[in-house]
Specification:
The protein is of the alpha+beta class. Helices cover 23% and strands 23% of the residues. The chain is built from three helices and eight strands, in the order βαβββαββαββ. The strands form three sheets. It has a four-stranded mixed sheet with strand order 1-5-3-4, covered by helices on one side. Strands 2-8 form a two-stranded antiparallel sheet. It has a two-stranded antiparallel sheet with strand order 6-7. α1 (35-48) crosses α2. The protein is globular and about 40 Å long.
């Protein structure tokens, strides 16, 4: 993987992320998930009674960049809203690569696949963010209505 361009050459590490409560119906799954991982995540969320990790979505279309398992757990829990960080693929804090090869992933391919009503196989894309993503602690009661 010596021909890879660095992901975060222009990133401003001091720039914080904004967290919004986005309607779950405005979030679009982008990859298949492991049902067992979704079940374990759903149980962990119920056990804590809090949502701890925001789902990272593409701002204009709501496509999940990171958090497809969390999205599915939210669906199973019947949540109406979920904590999200809305970003654009042009944002220097975002890097997307192919999961297996580590090569840059063509963003246009994400948009065209989702626009066709399809999703990618499990572990197709790997999104990285710099600076690291924050943790939240939002009571589930705030997400049902």
């Amino acid at each position: 993987m010596e021909n890879q361009q660095p992901c975060f050459g222009d990133a401003d590490s001091a720039h914080a992320y904004d967290i919004v409560l986005r309607p779950l119906c405005d979030v679009r799954q982008s990859e298949q998930v492991d049902p067992d991982n979704v079940r374990k995540l759903r149980e962990a969320i119920l056990r804590t009674g809090r949502w701890l990790e925001p789902i990272i979505v593409e701002r204009s279309r709501g496509i999940v960049m990171d958090g497809n398992h969390r999205f599915n757990a939210a669906l199973q829990l019947g949540l109406k809203r979920v904590p999200c960080i809305e970003l654009d693929y042009a944002d220097p804090r975002v890097c997307v690569r192919h999961w297996r090869t580590g090569q840059a992933f063509e963003v246009a391919r994400i948009f065209t696949t989702i626009a066709r009503g399809e999703i990618f196989p499990y572990k197709t894309t790997r999104h990285a963010f710099d600076p690291a993503l924050p943790v939240v602690a939002i009571a589930l009661d705030n997400l049902y209505g």
